[in-house]
Amino acid sequence: MSYQKKYLPLILGAAIAAGIFIGGKLNFSDAPDRLFTKNSKKDKLNRLIDYIEYDYVDDINTDSIVDVTVNGILNNLDPHSVYIPKEDMERVAEEMKGDFVGIGISFYTYRDTITVIRALENGPSAKAGIKGGDRIIMANGDTLFGDKLKDFEIVKKLKGKKNSKVNLKVYRRGEPELLDFTVKRSTIPIASVDAVYMLTDKLGYIKINRFAESTYKEFKTGLEKLEALGATQIALDLRENPGGFLGIAEQIVDEFLEDDKLILFTKNKRGDIEKSFATDKGDFEDGEVYVLIDENSASASEIVAGALQDNDKGTIVGRRSYGKGLVQREMDLGDGSAVRLTVSRYYTPTGRSIQRPYDHGNKDYYDEYFERLDSGELLDPDKIHVDDSLKFTTPGGKVVYGGGGIIPDVFVPLDTSMQNETLSFLNRRGFFSNFVFEELEQDRHAFDGMSREDFIKNYQVSDDLVFTFQDYLNLRTQAKVTFVAYHDEVKQYIKATFADQLFGNGAFNEVYNQSDIMIDEVIKLSTKD
Q1: What sections of the protein cross the membrane (predicted)?
Q2: What is the model's pTM?
């Protein structure tokens, strides 16, 4: 046998393997003369980093230089192409997946100690006997108190593999010694549906905070619950919802649209178009839907609102949405980090892009909220700027506009009382939450026997409690705070926070929505003949 014949199978095998490898790396839209060529600008960047690493006079963390470089490149593309460092990937992945493995508690660090606000219903901690107010002192022999311990370090100690066990030592007020609990870790959902309940006999309410992998399943469960309670109308609250997975938004729209209706289409840089249509899976096609949006409803939220509006289905209520019409794809960078790169634009069924311009830089782009506020747009629909060249018409004859968010069918101005800057600030900084926790600590049995429904309908926050909260703030902020103009609004925040810490599962929204003017408008619309 000749040399060539002997090694021919080996040579052919190697050639095929090389072809598969190279083929997997190629982008077939590239011209042949671009393949296997060096890019001098890429080489320049690599060479500069090497010079800094090996020859620069001081020791430099080149990883941080690469991170800065990547961010600098992305900042020159568009506002939504972003870099996710390795250390943030687990948190980001959990948020979008919709669950994690842990012990199932809501907690915060109170006076340097891990304090349980509430053990999640049917979660591993609740099953083990952990209660609100408990202080977790140790986990598997490691201390969990002290001002130097960060929240992410605590979470790391409490998380672990599914079905693994963690031994906790817990201080509980009134008990002479520390209590011992063994908790078996399990999958803990990160809820993306905040609240599901009936606003009226016919009108159900669903609040979605983001579009994660688990959102459609949560939404579907909520929808079925409301239908069983007699809902023939749905208020879908997408306010403050920044978006998420496009495919999840499509599934939710499908519940409301008739078969074969266009939901949206996307177009990439090569002009390739992909269309998404409603299927026969929708269970609420005959019902009425009201979609609540505001200036912070973005991306997937706008897909839902735009698809329904352009198909003359339901009513969009609120204020002009954020205006994000770009689609990102997450791409692994090989070292545990990733980039979410804009790969296409999406268009509503009438063909409009609702992406806001970003040619004046990221700062101007993200500061547009203040421009809307200053222009009066958040209080007066006549102040909304529209471009007649971006006018579209729905099949039913409704005029809609592209170029900057979804303009609602029914405008509801910003509620300047409930959105008072002082109250919003206090809520974001946790003052309401901490105050309510301390009030509960004084007597955790005060609400024993009171049901969730009874609390929401009948519990009243006293004037004395508002004044106590006022004193609480003045002591901790060294400021003179008074609530003369916002007395009732403060009561609403306090009651909603009590409901959240006592009952969870959307109780905050159910209380807070009782004074929400947009909810009031939807109820009025739903009762019209």
Answers
A1: 7-28
A2: 0.85
